[in-house]
Amino acid sequence: MKKRTAGGLAETVKTLVYAIVIALFIRTFFYEPFNIPSASMVPTLLVGDYLFVSKFSYGYSRYSLPLGLPLWSGRVFFHEPNRGDVAVFRLPADPTIDYIKRVIGLPGDTIQVQHGVLYINGTAVTREQTEFCTDPDDPRSAAYQHYIETLPNGVRHCIVQLGEDRLFDNTPEFHVPAGHYFMMGDNRDNSADSRDPASGVGYVPAENLVGRAQFIFFSSNGYAEWWEAWKWPFSIRYNRLLHGVG
Question: Could you give the CA distance from residue 92 to residue 99 in angstroms, rounded to a whole number?
Answer without folding.
Answer: 10
